[in-house]
Design goal:
homodimer, 750 residues, alpha+beta, Butyryl-CoA Dehydrogenase, subunit A, domain 3, six-stranded mixed β-sheet, 26 helices, 11 strands, 55% helix, binds flavin-adenine dinucleotide, FAD binding (chains A, B), FAD (chains A, B)
Amino acid sequence: MTLTPVKRPEPKQLRAHVIQETVDTVVSAEAARLAEGPEWLTQSQENHGLPLSVERSFASFPVWELTHYLFGGRERAEHRERLMSDIERDPSFMMLDLKHDLPMGSVREATLRRARNFTETILEEHESVTRMRFDVLAMVDPSFMTRVGVHYALFWGTIRGQGTTEQIVDLASQGMLLLKDFFGCFAMTELGHGSNVAGLQTTATFMPESDEFELHTPSLLATKWWIGGAAESATHAVVFARLLSNGTDYGVRPFVVQLRHPQDFALCFGVTIGDCGAKMGRHGIDNGWIQFNRVRIPRRAMLARHVSINRAGVVRERARGSRQLAYGALITARVQIAVDASNACKRAITIAVRYAAVRRQFSPHPEAPETRLLDYPSHQARLMPLLADAFAIHFAAERTQLQQQACSELLEAVPESPLAVRALADLKALHGTASGLKAHSTWLAQRVIEECRQSLGGHGYSSYAGLASLQADFVVQCTWDGDNTVMALQCGRYLVACWRDRTGRAGLSSNLAYLATLEQALAYRSPARRAADFQRLDLLVQLYSSVCAHLVDTAGVKIEQYLSPAGGNMSPDEAYREAAPELLRAARAHCLGYMLRQFAEAVTAAPASLRPPLEKLCALFGLHHLIESAGALCAIALEKSFLSPEQLRDARDCYRALMPEIRADAVPLVDSFALPDFILASPFGRYDGDVYRAYFDRVKFGSTLSNEAARAAGGSGDRRATSGPVRLTGQEHPYFESQLKPLFRRTLPE
Amino acid sequence: MTLTPVKRPEPKQLRAHVIQETVDTVVSAEAARLAEGPEWLTQSQENHGLPLSVERSFASFPVWELTHYLFGGRERAEHRERLMSDIERDPSFMMLDLKHDLPMGSVREATLRRARNFTETILEEHESVTRMRFDVLAMVDPSFMTRVGVHYALFWGTIRGQGTTEQIVDLASQGMLLLKDFFGCFAMTELGHGSNVAGLQTTATFMPESDEFELHTPSLLATKWWIGGAAESATHAVVFARLLSNGTDYGVRPFVVQLRHPQDFALCFGVTIGDCGAKMGRHGIDNGWIQFNRVRIPRRAMLARHVSINRAGVVRERARGSRQLAYGALITARVQIAVDASNACKRAITIAVRYAAVRRQFSPHPEAPETRLLDYPSHQARLMPLLADAFAIHFAAERTQLQQQACSELLEAVPESPLAVRALADLKALHGTASGLKAHSTWLAQRVIEECRQSLGGHGYSSYAGLASLQADFVVQCTWDGDNTVMALQCGRYLVACWRDRTGRAGLSSNLAYLATLEQALAYRSPARRAADFQRLDLLVQLYSSVCAHLVDTAGVKIEQYLSPAGGNMSPDEAYREAAPELLRAARAHCLGYMLRQFAEAVTAAPASLRPPLEKLCALFGLHHLIESAGALCAIALEKSFLSPEQLRDARDCYRALMPEIRADAVPLVDSFALPDFILASPFGRYDGDVYRAYFDRVKFGSTLSNEAARAAGGSGDRRATSGPVRLTGQEHPYFESQLKPLFRRTLPE
Ligand SMILES: Cc1cc2nc3c(=O)[nH]c(=O)nc-3n(C[C@H](O)[C@H](O)[C@H](O)COP(=O)(O)OP(=O)(O)OC[C@H]3O[C@@H](n4cnc5c(N)ncnc54)[C@H](O)[C@@H]3O)c2cc1C
Ligand SMILES: Cc1cc2nc3c(=O)[nH]c(=O)nc-3n(C[C@H](O)[C@H](O)[C@H](O)COP(=O)(O)OP(=O)(O)OC[C@H]3O[C@@H](n4cnc5c(N)ncnc54)[C@H](O)[C@@H]3O)c2cc1C
């Protein structure tokens, strides 16, 4: 149903109010019409999608153009859409949200079912398409994506990065890439060591007499832990172990090790594997633990591109891998997580905004229709900043990826030129920033998801709303692939390193330009003269730069102090350790400032038609994290006189005034993320707004399903939802006979 | 094993460093001793609890005295301990954390099993003991507590509060209190209405011809939703429905309705019930939905203490319940949630601190032992403020309860005296504050739990760590019993009401004293002269009062503006709605300030031996939320010149300096919460520190259990963990034949 809006809003008038009135008018008219019909009609039409249609009809910008801009142009955006519908139609991906009602075993089995068609597909397509496919799949089924990612990115990625050409060719020829008698896992972490990889304790001792290694788990803490795919599906692993030869410890190296026989899946001799058991989310991936009891593996099992060992057990370090390649790979992995964080935010906020446009609660006076949540200023203040976060993380991740690619290409094209020197500096800076971005985008996303979940009220607690599992699946991103605190510290250390080095440098990367002009940044006085000036992105970016400059400077000064005789003559390691809280504060501001700058640049580069809404969102992002979020950046701005108290008040007014403006486009803005219902997998996020009917149907279906499963399991399976909408008698009730009857019939004490 | 510390720290020296060194010395000596023995010995002793013993030996205060102080004196503390061991020994409560590995159906059945012994126990004990029992049970099994709470507090509580004496006696005599043929639920919320209770749509139409009501669900959105106990275990409900008589709508009233026949549990005619299905947590409680299709119930089913209806259908409002009773009940319910929030924080931080005292990661140089997490300044900066939060919420909840009781007793004892006037004012203020406290204590706890979870690294993602389910079970407290945003708004509205009324008042409650002396509060200049002054609790309390005064004032001025002709002549409702973001900000600061003040008063009242550690924790709480947490309170302090920039820097230094001091007592401080391992239900929180062995055993046990369950279910049950530490061959593998074999054996495309 298309609608011509009743009344076009004047520019600058409060469009939000006009939209609110229009929706109320249209909806009441429809309700009156329906009230004349039979009761069943009223019931079934109760919450049709009218509000969303009206909201859409008021969009102030071309929605699909924004979609194209977000996803790299019309062609790529359409390609992405095709990929999504491809996956939607793949039978193995049907009814994804069944996972809420199926036993864990079936969920894991589904992961494998999905892997079957997959390999052929990706081997035939271009890498850029595969990357897009991975982004989408990570939303569709995070567990599946993890299982496949473990094999391709971690297992095979390590072989490709650390194996000699012969080793790579040899292993590929055996079918490793095709999942033919091979399914890999990545066994680095141990019970006792995760972040500190150099401290791993599994040993691989070279036995010259038989030209083999003896792989051994010397202690409980050396047990390989959390290994994705190990529990039930892997045949092989890349195992990280200490290379010992002739009594010398050569540090941790990767070894390709067979765990199970692909014919019958029996464990290889000396290998013990168990399941890590129940966990918070990602139930479809089988994490396991592995112990080796003096397992013999051939010498060629060690991946030997960088370090090799000969027949006599002599260990030789070969040319170390190119720095730039290593940076490139690390940046890619971390930015990939930021992409995932932005996607998680997009899903959560799409669900929250659409529901808020439909849900009504409380009316201002008895005759008025109830107010929609989206029309509450407090609800706007909750959701609009999260919408801005989703965009900010999106652009920051996207653009970091592009910069990394550009630098790497430049380095390859003109390796010795001055341009290349600059590119390498940029790459290093990107690496420093990417660690922080990984941490801060995932922390941000965690909060976005939880706030969206709570914004649904009680329904956010239902699994079918999709937000609880989004959260549970997502949060491990704060921990793996570099624990967030460790990553943020890495970013902070990099910032201080640049700070210490700032004068000696030819030129700092643009991301760190504020360190090159430190004095200037610290002497900054905002020229903003009224509230509206705080929508100026250039001013916001400068303000952040000054705040960052101050925080990096503070951390740097503290560290110099610790290093000095007066401050205790600490070693650099100790100094950085002691100053960790300051480093974390600096890294946090830097990452927010980085996201802001990337976002602002994306606004500048956007087609004119898209600039107004994006500009507002970008300003909201900057203002929100300045004024409201943890860390009190605005206090630093006041303290250092970057802002005067009056200016801070103006900034708050601007922040406040942006809410209803962005709210007026909130539905079109989440539409621009172009997430199909299939991926949202939440009745509350439905494009058509028919949330209640869909929710009720899903709940009824869940009961029926559990009923069936329980019946199939002979009554001893998962009987959670056995009552269903059926009229239960004692016989069918899961525990009436065992619990309720004895309770009701007991004789009471005197 | 008891240890004499190697070296007693000088006062004011960095005790944290001394402790660190002592632990390292003792642990290395022990390790050297073990290294001489056989390998299995080294393995099994790998992470004995030595570090915790050493930490404890350095306690700067008498730990059990603090326990007694926390829990209302030695006698009560010991009683609480006895209760806990009682529950621990009750066979139906054994092996609580089995829930991670059992199918949902068994978890729900366990809830009922636990209910069996329960009723007799509580009917025989004093109410204050029962309250203590409830606090403990809410930690032990939140689902069980919910089921029992629904029956006693909500179902029976409504009958007691809204029924006539006859109705109460009549229902009690039928066995309602004894769970004899009665198990109640509380059916208020509908699919379409939660916060707005006045908008509920279920109808109860009086039928004078048969002296009955016709209870009806007129639309999908009127379906009763989320009703705890409805899906599988309730026989009766208190149903909230609109009372219609002679064509007039008398608003929402409570009705006692039978849902099922206790003999065979068949549903009553016209009642349809379904399961709400999968949800985020509290899996042991059976939430259901209910629809009524013109169900007839007798006239006496309406609880008629406040509103009655006669044979002719004439509705009469009786004397309204006493205000003070209503306040009392609301305060009790909300404070109860704050108590639960503090308990959740205590559990989470106990686990996080003990693990951090054992876990090592990274060494400063190759020969040194790795650093324990607790010795990282960044880890201290993460955990110590959370420890302070746990104490702050504890004291605030505890003391609010006591104040409420004191006021109520005073009101009863000398109803007409000037004392009573003051007591009533205090009770109203407490009610305003309690709404905000409910919201902010649960929001705080949600973040505390998540941060603790992440602080464990990867192991925090394991269900067996206990933090994921603590979180999932807990967060619904942000939504039910008054959605947090709605509660915080209520608090904000109350604050502004007091602000508007501040001159007309005889005297404001002490919690709002800062409004009575508004000008003074706004003109405040901190007298702090050096960093150490920011440990002075009186100064911190004053600072908070001024910040609160400013924020309430800002919100109030804004509302006056909206109400004025210049500001749009809004209705009060509209004005409060528009100013909601300002109200929320004021409420937030007020609640933090309230917690701080309660905490500070508890410090003053504490025995001298406990004051030093509590003082530091209290200061940390105040400083943390001033400087670091969301909302940037310190920016307001700067802006209004309550603090100068130099003073803010001093405050930061003080904040920073408190970390290692509190860290030195961190283990004894969490010990003082006196949570037994049984309640912590996390290997990482074990009192003896033997975390890894316990974790590994639990994981192995989980697999075995799932194996057995799967076998019992004939292979089609929950097969999540079927691999276990067993050597799997294809035959036993849950999906080798169906998925892996076809994958490995397929013919590849050319
Ligand atoms: C679901 C899941 C799947 C996984 N899959 C795999 C897999 O397939 N293969 C694999 O090899 N691993 C896997 N992992 C392991 C993961 O990589 C590790 O959990 C991660 O690297 C963190 O290590 P850790 O758990 O040992 O935490 P730790 O390193 O012990 O960290 C614990 C805490 O200490 C803090 N900390 C650590 N060092 C410092 C420091 N220097 N300064 C300040 N604070 C510090 C951290 O911030 C953290 O809070 C998986 C983990 C999970 C949860
Ligand atoms: C596990 C569980 C068990 C439950 N058990 C029971 C039970 O046994 N019996 C029972 O009757 N109920 C029960 N409930 C329901 C619970 O009481 C409601 O979910 C709660 O009252 C919130 O109502 P709602 O879900 O309709 O949210 P809504 O009221 O629709 O709120 C949705 C969102 O809108 C916001 N909002 C609402 N009004 C305003 C406003 N005026 N201004 C600004 N923002 C606003 C809220 O903050 C929230 O974010 C249960 C819920 C859950 C999740």
